[in-house]
Every structure is written in C-alpha cells, then in structure tokens.
Design goal:
By secondary structure, this protein is an all-alpha fold. Helices cover 85% and strands 0% of the residues.
C-alpha cells in the first residue's frame, strides 16, 4: 500500500467518525413528542397520510394478486366446461385491475383531502 492510499483511507475514516459524532450531537425531537409548531405538525400529519396511502396501495395490490390467482383457477374450470380460458381470464383480470385502480384512486383522493385539511389547519394556527 502506498502512502497516498493510506492517507485516503485515514481521511475517509476520520470524516466518517466526525460525521457520526456530529449526527449524534444534533438534538432531534423525540418520535412521540408533542410539538406546538404548526409546520412540524403538518409535516407529521402529511407523513401519516402518506403512510396510510402506501399501506392502502399495498393492500390493494396484494388483493389484486390474490384475485388473479383465483382467476387462473376459474379460467381452468371454464376450460373444462368448454369455454375459452384465455378470454375468461382476460375478462376477470380486467375487472380485477379496475377494482385495484379504483381502490388506489380513492386512497389518493383521501390522502389529498387530508393534506388540504392539514394545510388549512396550519394556516389557521399561523394567523
């Protein structure tokens, strides 16, 4: 190892140590601490609204995935009765996609309404 490589390694280690120490010294509010600052409250409320939206979206996708598995079984059953399984599966999957999109769209609208409400609350507290 050359002196240049050792110096770079030492410099990188020093910077990492200083960065970690500076990060530990910064006073961060506790996760459950109540705040009176309306802007901070709005951010926390928006973060909660975003998390709720993501959870709803994940649930809708999970539900659609489960329905698609069921659609495959229904299509296989339709093939036994003489119907074209691809057409049956396509129609069922289209309905599943429409349901998923509707759920996500409703969750998005709810999130936007909640964010608007949070903004109005913040403006009232600031004025």
């Amino acid at each position: 190892m050359t002196l240049r490589h050792m110096t770079r390694g030492l410099l990188a280690a020093t910077l990492l140590t200083l960065g970690a120490a500076a990060g530990a010294q910064q006073a961060a509010p506790a996760a459950g601490a109540a705040t009176t600052d309306p802007i901070v409250e709005r951010r926390m409320d928006n973060k909660a609204a975003n998390q709720e939206y993501r959870d709803t979206k994940r649930a809708a996708k999970r539900e659609a995935r489960d329905e698609k598995r069921e659609n495959e079984m229904i299509a296989a059953e339709a093939a036994r009765t003489g119907k074209d399984p691809l057409i049956v599966k396509r129609e069922l999957n289209a309905a599943t996609r429409a349901d998923k999109r509707a759920d996500i769209k409703a969750a998005r609208a709810e999130k936007r309404a909640e964010k608007r409400e949070n903004l109005e609350e913040m403006r009232q507290k600031l004025n």
